[in-house]
Amino acid sequence: MALVVISKQILEKEGAVVKKLILIAGLVALVLGILLVILAFLGMLELEPQEIGIEADGGEVILHAPGYILSGQLLILTLETNPTTGYSWQLGEFDEAVLKLELYKYVPREHVAGQMGVGGEAIWYFQAQSPGTTILHLEYTRSWEEDVEPAKTLTVQIVVQSASLLPR
Questions:
Q1: Is 31 found in the same domain as 58?
Q2: Second label for 58, Cα 20 to 30 Å away, from 4, 27, 29, 141?
Q3: Domain Proteinase inhibitor I42 chagasin spans what residues (predicted)?
Q4: Are residues 82 and 20 in the same domain?
Q5: Do 106 and 27 share a structural domain?
């Protein structure tokens, strides 16, 4: 009888150890699953460039702009322009602690070789530096004309928020 009691106690101890191992393995799997979900969520928060653009729909002008951008994010401003008319967009002063101009380029519209008067796009690339607000003010002018109102103006408020404030 003593032998039966001892073997029952050994089996109970081994069963308890197996249960603990199963519990630990389950907890490890749960933690790994949570980590994978967190990593997948963070991957979705990659800082894609934000674009600002304007399009004309008949007499209506539509501004496409995000409500805010995140520090470290790229902001792309694209405006139609036609330098063959003498006009070009002039960017005014802005807070460079909030936004840094990385690159400006003009991209001509596709056209037949030799075709005259074809416009294109003026494109500015800004890097959001630190949280804050700044104003981008642009005027469509001819450089040689003085004391003349710009043909067009554009003013856009840019709000930069800290990327660390995002829900995780």
A1: no
A2: 141
A3: 72-158
A4: no
A5: no
Q: Please, are residues 52 and 76 in contact by the beta-carbon 8 Å criterion?
A: yes
CA distance 158 to 166: 18
H or E stretch including 122?
strand 120-128
Whole-angstrom distance, CA of residue 55 vs CA of residue 125: 19
Return the structure tokens found at 57: 């729909």
Q: Is the pTM for the entire model greater than 0.85?
A: no
Tens of pLDDT, residues 105-127: 999 988 778 888 888 999 999 99
Tell me, yes or no, whether 76 and 139 share the same domain. yes
Please give the Cα distance from 107 to 58 (Å, whole number): 24
Strand ranges, E, within 19-95: 50-57, 60-64, 69-70, 74-81, 87-91
Domain containing 66 — which CATH number? 2.60.40.2020
Q: Any idea what the Cα angle at residue 92 is, between residues 90 and 94, rounded to 5°? A: 145
Distance, CA of 162 to CA of 39 (rounded, Å)? 20
- Quote the domain boundaries for residue 4: 1-46
